[in-house]
Each structure stands twice: as C-alpha cells, then as structure tokens.
Design brief:
Blueprint lengths: L1 H9 L3 H4 L1 H8 L2 H28 L6 H9 L1 H35 L5 H20 L2 H31 L21 H16 L15 H30 L2 H4 L8 H10 L1 H35 L18 H24 L8 H30 L14 H20 L1 H12 L1 H11 L1
Helix pairs in contact: 1-8, 1-10, 1-13, 3-9, 4-9, 4-10, 4-15, 4-16, 5-6, 5-15, 6-7, 6-13, 6-14, 6-15, 7-13, 7-14, 8-10, 8-12, 8-13, 9-15, 9-16, 12-13, 13-14, 15-16, 15-17, 16-17
Amino acid sequence: MAIAIVVGNTIGSGIFVKPGRIAADAGSFPLIFSVWIAGTVLCILGGLCLAELSAMHPRSGGLYVYLREAYGPLPAFLFGWQEFLFARPASTGALAVVCISSLFRILGWRTNPWDIVPMALVVILAIAWFNVLGVLWGARLQALTTIVKCGLVLTIALLPWIMTIVGKPAIEFGLLSETMPPEQSSIPSQVAAVLLAVMWAFNGWEGVVPIAEEVKNPGRNLPLALLGGIGLLGLLYMSATLAYHLVIPISEMVIPENREHVAEILLTRLLGTWAGSMMSVGLVLSTLGTINSNLLTSPRVTYAMGRDGLLPGFFGGLHPRYRTPMVAILFQGAMACVMVIGSALLIQFTNYFEKRTIFDLLTDCIVFAASLFYTAAIAALIVLRRKQPEHPRPFRTPWYPWTPILYIIAYAWFIVSILQEQPVEGVMGLFLIALGIPYFFHRSRLR
C-alpha cells in the first residue's frame, strides 16, 4: 500500500493531459524524451535522499519534520504553510477540474469554466469526507485506483506495439524525427518549460513520507516504497511518451484543441471512438485517485503542525471514533474549493490570465512552490549528516554527498528558469509563502 500511495499520489493527469503542451513548448521528440529522462533521474536522486531522512525520522509530517530538524521551526512552518494554504489545495483543485472536464467530454457536453466549478467542489468535499472515515479506507481506495492508473498508462505504452504484432501496424518511426517550431525561443527555455510539465507529472512522488508514522517497519518499507514507486513511474511515463510520438504526429499534438486530449486521440486512432471515450472514463478514475491521495497524505502535515502548536490546536486533533485528523482533512478540502473558485475569477477578470485554463494556472504555481521546498529538504540531508551524526540511519543515501549536490544544482537552475519565464506565477508563490512569516511570529508570541 505504501508503493501504491507513491504511484497513486503521482499519476493523476500529467501523463495524459500535458503531452500536447510539452510538444508545443519543445517541438521535437529527442528533446522531449531527454527531459523525461532527466526528470526521472532527478526524482530518483531525491528519493535516495528522502529515503534516508524518512528512515531516520519516521513521523507524521514528512518534509515538515526534516526541515524542522535541519533548520528549525520557521522553514518547517513555511513548508507546512504553503502545503495547507495553497500547494496541495491547488493540486486537488486542478485534478478535480480535469476530472469533471473528462466527465463532460464523455457526455459530449461543451462547457465553460463556470459549468465545471460547482461539480468540482462536490467531488473535492465528497472525497475529503471519505478520508475522514479512516486511513485504511483511503489506502484501500488508493490501491484500487492505482491499479486503474497503471493499467491506463500501460495500455497507452503497449497498445501500439501489440497492434503491430497482431498485424495491424500502428507505429511510424519516422514520426520521431518530425519537428515543429517550438513556442519557446531558446533551448534553455524549452527545457525549462518541458521540465515544468514533467515535474507536474511527477509531483507527489514523496507522498508516502507524511504518513511515515502509520507505516509498519518504516526503516525498510519507506525506502522500498520511494525507490520502487519512482522507478515504476519513470518506466511508465517514458514508455507512454514514446508511444504517443510513435502514433501521433507532433504537428497534430500541438493543435490547441488537441493538446489536453492526446491520450484519447491515441486510443481513438488505434481502436476506435469507443476506446477514446473509455480513456476519458479512465482519466476520471485516475484523477479521483490522486485527489484521494492528496487528501490522505497532505492533511497529516497540517495535523503535525497543529500538534506542534504552529497552527491552532484543533488542527492537531483526531476524530474520536475514526482516529483521523478530521479538521485538517476538511480544511484542506475547503481550501481546494477556494483555489478553484479563485482561479476561475482570475481567468475571467484579468488580462494576464485570460488565455490560461484553471488547470494550467494552478499546476504552474504548485510546481514552483514545491521545487523550493524539495530543494531545501534534500539539502537537509547534508545538514543532518553534520548536525545529527550519531542518529540511527536504517538507510544511508548512496554516493553521498554527490546525490544531494546534483539534485540541488539541477533544481536551483530550474527555479531560476521558472522565475525568468513565468515571473507573475513565481512572485505569487513567493508572496503566499511569505505571508506565513508574520503569522509564524504571531503564533510564537501566543505560545
């Protein structure tokens, strides 16, 4: 179930919805596939580092705990602040929007954002209450939806080859050399834009560590879950990306109305219209599973902060019967609803965002904020090797210190690139994080 949480918390919409956007930004398969490889390697490096940290400190809160141990309460608080205020709620909201959009596509309804918003809110609140009923219920749902997600990605990855083997050629290797003028002007900006989408697809790979306190034998099972889950994700994602580009011309992927529906186009082309509709059904189930995973893991960070007194005490309480952090879960669901409504308003009433979708607006802000704290958490490994040298380490990161150093260098470049290419989204993320500083000192005075 821990591996299911890693995979299920990560596979949501990125590998199905982002390929068209990636093709438009880069314009060539070799560059696209290279960035997918780089993204996988980055996550493996991060997984090796978090495996040591999670085995050292197997407590609820995940990155919040590691940042607190390494740097003190303020950086840890700011991570939990952005998680509970906008990062995970925005992720949950974005997935709910894709879920309802896919449902409407199955029904053949043409909609605008305000048709989608009310149903997205219902989905978020329903899954939040499901997680209040108990962590085991959430884990069981996660295991079930993870099977569906892996089945969808495997279908995309293997179907072109199966069709070719049975005598219905579907693969055109010449498509891999096809190019289109990229929307990003330079190679660095193309890499940064593609990596932004790739890291959204990988967003959540660390999702098992916030519930470390509830995992049996964490010194063994957390490293296995992280590395096994990330390895499986990388294999699935790269296989699916190859399949897309072997079947669909990149010139077709970049058409605006096709960009978010490349997976449906692939199955429709290979099996017929019914298969494209089934892909939409699968996307509904996939996003439901990732929403569930967000509401299973992230509220444990809020719960840990409430237990530490950094948030009001009721966030650190458990439901008397179900023994789950009910207030933290319901608050997270409510904030996701706020993020969906706020994004729809920004798109409708501002010129800067009017050409964006709710999904793109929310996901771009998430990846930037998450990157800051991922980098700080990996650097915490170096700090704690010096600060807590005698602390038991059931798992030790191989190739230390080069593993965390390479990760930090790559992510530092990535963060600077985002600020250059999308300054408004970056500044918004920094502003929302900075709002936590006065609140932290206010809570400190109260304590």
